[in-house]
User: Which sequence fits this backbone?
């Protein structure tokens, strides 16, 4: 009896990897932890298991590494060099929707001085040592060998991205990496950029029975500011809109009686900057919220 012919499967071409994933794998192979960014230069939002830190992992974002869930979660802390994670099904799905690749500079032992405009670039050329330079949309990234704490708005148009932050990968750049200089470290200990002045009184403040403004009750005002900080901190997507909406809510509730101080406003700005907003964006959002309320 004639034996049936054995059907052999001829391997077909492997599915083509998304371009961002190919770039990410190349970077990861050199020891640079990477993650995908979606449109707007923001990370993908946490999965439902990790939303609002329900997973219990890294509530204060103090450590790097992928979450135990299979998703791309916890923003910069998801950055990894593990090719198995990067090419896993859930990550590949994110790479297919990704707009660009980001990396965790501090995890690679690097610091990025993000120069946001021509004026900042001109300043750096006179104040900082030459190092590897990458062009950005409006300015340049100056990359140094060595890690430090990240800081936003250390001077006009200048952010420092290293530990607990991410930076876009925009190419290999030019020139040679040099050691992180004291001039960059010193930027982090200077006085922070000023915040807008406290809103002026434009209406008679609400009074309690004894004539004292209820917003001056420490617990009342503190609770309002703390809730606003939490709302910004827990935003996993639409950070710009969340910051603006939170500023609007705080001003609507507490802005007309004059009880908000520079300290309260600085706390809100700090929370927003920890999510990647620049000082300029914070100022614009605050101004726009005041304008909408007629303040």
Assistant:
């Amino acid at each position: 009896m004639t034996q049936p012919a054995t059907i052999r499967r001829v391997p077909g071409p492997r599915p083509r990897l998304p371009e961002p994933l190919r770039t990410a794998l190349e970077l990861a192979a050199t020891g640079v932890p990477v993650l995908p960014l979606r449109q707007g230069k923001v990370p993908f939002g946490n999965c439902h298991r990790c939303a609002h830190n329900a997973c219990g992992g890294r509530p204060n974002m103090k450590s790097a590494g992928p979450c135990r869930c299979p998703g791309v979660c916890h923003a910069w802390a998801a950055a990894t060099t593990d090719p198995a994670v990067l090419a896993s099904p859930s990550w590949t799905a994110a790479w297919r929707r990704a707009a660009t690749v980001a990396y965790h500079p501090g995890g690679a032992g690097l610091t990025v001085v993000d120069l946001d405009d021509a004026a900042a670039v001109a300043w750096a050329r006179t104040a900082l040592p030459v190092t590897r330079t990458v062009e950005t949309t409006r300015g340049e990234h100056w990359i140094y060998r060595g890690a430090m704490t990240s800081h936003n708005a250390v001077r006009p148009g200048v952010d420092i991205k290293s530990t607990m932050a991410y930076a876009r990968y925009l190419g290999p750049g030019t020139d040679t990496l040099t050691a992180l200089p004291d001039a960059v470290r010193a930027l982090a200990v200077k006085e922070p950029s000023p915040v807008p002045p406290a809103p002026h009184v434009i209406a008679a403040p609400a009074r309690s029975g004894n004539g004292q403004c209820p917003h001056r009750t420490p617990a009342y005002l503190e609770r309002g500011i703390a809730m606003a900080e939490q709302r910004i901190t827990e935003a996993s997507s639409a950070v710009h809109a969340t910051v603006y909406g939170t500023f609007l809510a705080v001003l609507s509730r507490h802005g007309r009686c004059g009880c908000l101080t520079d300290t309260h406003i600085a706390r809100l700005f700090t929370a927003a900057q920890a999510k990647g907003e620049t000082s300029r964006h914070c100022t614009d959002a605050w101004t726009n919220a005041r304008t909408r309320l007629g303040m």
Q: What stands out?
A: The radius of gyration is 23 Å. The first helix runs from residue 19 to 28. DSSP finds nine helices and ten strands in the chain.
